[in-house]
Amino acid sequence: MQVINAIDLEKNFQNTNAIKKISFSIKSGKITGLVGPDGAGKTTLIRMLTGLLTPSFGKLNVLGYQMPNTSSEFLKQIGYMPQKFGLYEDLSVYENLELYGNLQGVENLFLRIEELLDFTSLKKFKDRLAGNLSGGMKQKLGLACALIKKPKLLLLDEPGVGVDPISRIELWQMVQELLKEDIAVVWSTSYLDEADICDEVILLNEGTCLYQGTPQVLREKMKNRVFLVSGEFYKKREALTTILEQDEILDAVLVGSKIRINLQKNKLLKKDIYYSLGKDIKIEPINPIFEDAFVDILNEKTQAHSKLVRNMKNVEPSDKKLIEAKNLTKKFGDFIATDNIDFEIGQGEIFGFLGPNGAGKSTTFKMLCGLLTPTFGTAKVLGEDLYNSKSTIRNSIGYMAQKFSLYGNLNIKDNLEFFSGIYGLKGKKRKEKIEEMIEIFDFKNYLQTNTDSLPLGIKQRLSLACSVMHEPKVLFLDEPTSGVDPITRKEFWTHINSLVKKGVSIMVTTHFMDEAEYCDKIMLIYKGKAIANGTPDELKNLVGSQVSMQETFISLIKQYDKEEK
Ligand SMILES: Nc1ncnc2c1ncn2[C@@H]1O[C@H](COP(=O)(O)OP(=O)(O)OP(=O)(O)O)[C@@H](O)[C@H]1O
Ligand SMILES: [Mg+2]
């Protein structure tokens, strides 16, 4: 049954046409995916569907009501999880659910809360303050609050941001369950593997609708244009750059030791170039995924080179261990967040630190960066313990925190000024670097906006800019691409790849398993412990041949749970 119908819908703000005359319909019993890059208009559209925003022109009917409508009768039927869900940080998990439940007059609230705590695996943490939850656990609690009263229309604005692969699948399954009750779900997402399994997708770009239909139809358009290049590359990252330099290539990504390529429309593959990149090179056609179609429809060629490193010198070779954790342990009361972790990271390496929500990743990052003291063991960077070290070492390190350390009431330029000062940039160099960051990350339209009101993707770009502008030798990236659109994610990885080619050492965490494939080494941590480690291919081989990183991640975690029981 059709529950939403929009005809020539428009939304204009002071200086922007956020939504430009779009028409679409949404049915119940289905999940409709809303995809598109930053600024496409996804959040504006969702807000109009909730009745919070008034359309400028056109017609919008939601659940039989003409929009805008904010009657309680209408609102009762809507479940809405905004990007920034308003949790009460000083209330416990349970109290948050209780509060939302009471506000909405939910009957048998106790049972509903138990159900939701089970689903989100938050039962064990029900008494923990929401403010002390890991990033992903907060998202899950937000969703649980939005579901407290079973709605007729569920609007989810990027619910998967910062959520681990296992929880995202669980989230998906729970929403699938809701469909049986004939609920309509609108799911905005930057995870294109999620878009691929939606019943329908609406693809927005700059306020216009580029496509509405099934993901399959869109994917089919890429048939015979996607290939896997395998073999023994002489230098994997150089090979990737060479491939991306080719005119006929639209996109190329590392998949462990292989490279997946995506050909421009009506172009032929110039195979000789690929054969020169290594020994025993093979090129085989493979099935397209939604991401291929997405890149194609937006016609965004992935850049081979990052402007970030154009003036950067190579990091001088060093035989020191760049990053080293030994028996690293952190306890919060009786709870062990990081449990006896050991690893070393060499120069010019990308070390992927993966794990489910609450595994202890951010806690470990913070100890390495000298923001938390270890309860036991040591964390050293460039041979020094940062907690006690002099500020000179700190200038060689960049840290992009999971939660913004930006100053929300300052604008972009002020933040760049402030962080360049902290990292010891001075005079002409400082001025040049700030201008360079504005150009590279395309901040010019946002310079006067307070960072608090920036879209999530832009905030992440600013955080990245602030952590790299002083040309650090060692870079810590705690979920750099969370909340970043698929095209910008590719840009981020072009930067990261170029930095390691210059000799920078990078420790990174992500919940996007395709990004894990870019790492040289991966450590999988769970419940504070390291449960597996190796190259992406080695990890996959632990689980089976032909498995994806996502399947590997899930399988290794589940296996650990089984053995622990
Ligand atoms: N100050 C604190 N007091 C109590 N518990 C804490 C504190 N900081 C973190 N924790 C707990 O430590 C565990 C690990 O948190 P951490 O933020 O390191 O997880 P994470 O692996 O980064 O997760 P995510 O993927 O969700 O970001 C979580 O259970 C979290 O609730
Ligand atoms: Mg974290």
Automatic annotation (TrEMBL):
GO terms for molecular function: ATP binding; ATP hydrolysis activity. Residues 4-231, 323-552 form the ABC transporter domain. Gene3D superfamilies: P-loop containing nucleotide triphosphate hydrolases (3.40.50.300). It comes from Arcobacter ellisii. SMART domains: AAA. The lineage of its organism: Bacteria, Pseudomonadati, Campylobacterota, Epsilonproteobacteria, Campylobacterales. This is Multidrug ABC transporter ATP-binding protein. Keywords: ATP-binding, Nucleotide-binding.
